[in-house]
Amino acid sequence: MNPRLSDLVSASRVVSIPLRTKFRGITERELLVFEGPNGFSEWAAFTEYSDEEAATWLAAAIEWGHNDLPAPKRNSVPVNAILPAVTLADISKILTRAGKFTTVKIKTAEKGQSVSDDLARILEVQNLYPEAKIRLDANGGFNISQAMELLEKLSFEGIELEYFEQPVATIADLSEMKIEIAKTGQTTLIAADESVRKSSDPLAVELAGAADILVLKSAPLGGIANALQIAASSKLPIVPSSAMQSSIGLSAELHFAACLDELVFDAGLGTMNLFAGDLVTDSLKPVDGVLEVRRPEVATSALDTLKAEDHRYDWWIARLQRCGRLIGLEA
Ligand SMILES: [Mg+2]
Question: Which of 133, 183, 198, 217 is the catalytic position?
Answer without folding.
Answer: 217
